[in-house]
Amino acid sequence: MVAGAGMAGLLAARALLGHADEVVVVEPDDLPDAPGTRPGTPHAEQFHILHALARGLLDHWFPDLAAELAAHGVVPLSTVDGRMCVDGRMRPVIPDDELLPVHRPMVEWHVRRAVLPRVKLVRDRVVGLAGDRRRVSGVVLAGGRCDADLVVDASGRGTRQGEWLRGLGVTPAPKRRVHLDLGYATALYHRAPGQRLDGLLAVHSLRSAAWPDPGVSCVAAVSPDRWLCTVAGYGERRPGRAAEAFRERLLAEPAPAFAALVRTCAPATPVAVHRFPHSVRRDFHRADGQPEGLVSVGDAVASFNPVYGQGVPSAAMHVSAMSAWLAEGSSVEAYFERLRVLVDAAWQTSVVADFRLPHVRGERPRGHRVMQAVGAAIDRAAMADPVVARRFLDVVNMREHPRELLRPDILGRALRNEARLRLTR
């Protein structure tokens, strides 16, 4: 039984088909018959990009997905056509790497069409767990009860699992939060046939903590006739819904593609906004007696600052770990230990960068000042050294563990770059 029919729940249901006689997905929302948002996915209209890791796992579970997306105009972009920049400076081109900007409702719709015909969908809401402190035997729904050998919580960052567990007399897993006060705003723009912006089809622009208005802006061609553009900011600089204010922010963006967008293209939709108050992770590996028969995936485990694009890749990795754990047949503690390794890597990548922003509050990891200094040096080296830039991109795209940036050869290149910068000041 899977609670939630978002991306994490759909991926979990697909993976469970290889392990179960019957898979039941419980979802309270009406699921649209076409690409579109719904109450359970208020962030779906915002910019999404699939990292190579997520694409590989999606290709494994859905071999026809890439062709279906291509038929709807979604095309992978080489690093020649899509670039990343920091404070207006472009990062070095990394050969043989691809970007896949997507409209999230389109991807979720295709995955939903592939999964739901093969499972039982129940339109209902989970209000509790059946079982006892030792083992979960199903869920209590608003309209009845559903027995299950395994319950997968894929109900998102707002999961009620803590309440469900307290109903069984179980203390929920402890949580950690990093308070971000992030907001982002998105609009679709009309695109002329074959149009490029500043010679590019996609730009990911980071405004660092040194910039007056830290945040991220992204623009990409998501179909032959549409651009998708998102602006993100923090605190009092969170973007709003006003079309003219959105336009002014794009004109002030240091990467020139954004000014080119508003000067040459007309908006195709109103501005959609979403607020992300904090990152959160649930440390299931530290829980006191997590019952058997209950696991979690996706944002119900950890929900990171969305500007890093870790949501779908993390959910896919959680589901892959769940599938391997089921094949192994070990205890639930073994699953959450697998999960800890994955979450630690993604959490480190995001929170080290987040804590460079002076307004961010939360539990800083041990040794974070050293990590900040080393991370800043690696970031600067990645702007000039193609070898460091390649390794940095591999970590950001979750192909490699963050510890790869601490290898002696990478640290040596970063230190040499720091020495060069001091000599040129």
TrEMBL record:
<protein>
    <submittedName>
        <fullName>Hydroxylase</fullName>
    </submittedName>
</protein>
<dbReference type="InterPro" id="IPR036188">
    <property type="entry name" value="FAD/NAD-bd_sf"/>
</dbReference>
